[in-house]
Amino acid sequence: MEQTLADRDLFYQVLIRKITVLLMVISFLPLMVITGTLFYRFNLTYTEKIQAHISELVQRHSQNIDTFLLEKLGNIRYLAHQFETKQHTPKVFLQKHLKMLKKEYGDVFTDLGLINKSGIQFSYEGPFKFENADYSNAQWFKKAIDKPFYISDVFVGLRGHPHFIIAVKIQSNGSDYILRSTINFTAFNFLVENIHIGKTGIAFIINSEGRLQTKTDIGLKQSIITSMLDRNCYKNNETVFAKKQDASGNKYLCVTSMLKNIDWVMVFRQDLNDAFRDLRKTQILTLGIFLLGCIAILFVSFTLPRNIVKLISKADTKSEAMTKQVVESGKLATIGELAAGIAHEINNPVAIMVEEAGWIEDLLGEEDLKECENLDEFTRALKQINTQGKRCKEITHKLLSFARKTDSTVNDVQINDAIKEMVILTGKMANYNNVIIETKFQEGIPYIQISPSELQQVIINLINNAIDAMEKSGGTIIIETKISRIEKNHLVISIEDNGPGIAKDNLDRIFDPFFTTKAVGKGTGLGLSICYGIIQKMGGKIDVHSQVSIGTKFRIWIPFQENIIENKDNEKESDKQGELT
């Protein structure tokens, strides 16, 4: 037995381990695959989205700056054309058109000037005193004199603050001149400063030599300058998106776009942590959810198998108990068959004894034994033998009737009379256990068509259960019959005891097969289940009400038909008339 229990415990432990491993594998594997796939796809999609958004933003602002420069260049070229076709005094021309430009564009155009091919500005209109200024050595002049138009880089020059020049070459009276205008740097720089994303995202412009053309607090590194000098990176004016790292190890995004009308590059720079802040938050949240899922899986993997094995263990225990009950039921059935056989065998000699006693009584009546002193004693003894023999015959007949399993023949049964017989049959057992059986029968109870043996089985089982419940302390069983006032055409049989009662948790299970509260070997758990089936087959119903320490009451409803009552009453009336006749 101990070896069997040890083997079972070992089996349960192995089963727990196998279920735990299986749960972890089938849970962790899909979770990791799904989380990894979603993590990768979301990271890729978000990166592409950020890249597309920033690239589009830089390209759009590059186009705006190109449009700005192209528009201002167009204004100056228009003025140059006006100067060539119409003869004006240079001073009047510059005054008139600068006023017009300021009226139209505000402070975008700072001044206007005419410069001869020697680099001398012979006419000027603006806030500074730059008439006769010499630009012959200026880099922008040297480049502008050989081109139809030119836009310079941003420089400080004579005025001492950043600006850049738009210059257009014109011809007048057979000589070459340059019409130039200074563009307000503040207005131009505002276009670039509008590009600002997050905390570190900032835009600026550099020329082909890597010098800043706008204001910025971000220091440029040689790696960035080198990448911008390589014009092969900007084929078809495409926006270039790159991830770089500075000397301090800080990683950042670098988005560049070449302007169309000037050799400048629009640059957007933003720290990676800033650019992907929302992505990092989502990744942290995803990781947290993943860890919570892992914890939940571990918890379930270690708790669920133990609970399952506990249920299996309980089921095995119940199965063993049910097996034992089935064995006990088999034993009881065998004992019942044996008792039926013994009762049948006893019934035959008892019948012979009764017949022989009657025959002796007849012989005594024929003989002249008036002078016999023991005649009265012989007569009394013969009557006692006859009486007790008939009693034994009645007891064995009832026992055989109850034990006859196949006797399900439906007959007309008078409930009160049938219950009286069963009370007599169980009376000795009740007296032995100090239990009193009381009956309350309603008069005029009709006959019902049922199997007498099945009714006996139900009533005796309920009486025996009540006696078993009160075997230690004794008590009272009240059996009552009446016609139901609630259910039409139904008889009600109630069997009530004042025993210990049934626990509330067990009330819903007492009619289940093999459920019993008795000790192993004392009950099979089949009695009430069989009773329930029998009553259901009769078309009736059975219920139970019980309170602990107060008692238990079973009620049985059995249907009957009105015509049975009328037929039985007619039979009784006929019998009475026959007796009178």
Describe the structure.
The protein is of the alpha+beta class and 581 residues long. It folds into 2 domains: 1-275, PAS domain (Beta-Lactamase); 407-573, 2-Layer Sandwich (Heat Shock Protein 90). The chain contains 13 helices and 17 strands. The chain has a 6-stranded antiparallel beta sheet with strand order 3-2-1-6-5-4. Helix 9 packs parallel to helix 10 and helix 10 packs antiparallel against helix 12. The protein is rod-shaped. It starts with a helix and ends with a helix. Mean pLDDT is 81; it is low at 572-581.
N-C termini distance = 78 Å
Helix content: 40-55%
Number of strands: 17
Estimate the global geometry from the Cα principal axes. rod-shaped
Q: How much of the polypeptide forms β-strand, as a percent range? A: 15-25%
Q: How many structural domains?
A: 2
Taking all Cα atoms into account, the compactness measure Rg is: 59 Å
Number of distinct helices: 13
**Proper CATH architecture of the largest domain:** 2-Layer Sandwich
Give the overall pLDDT as a whole number: 81
Highest-level CATH class of the largest domain: Alpha Beta
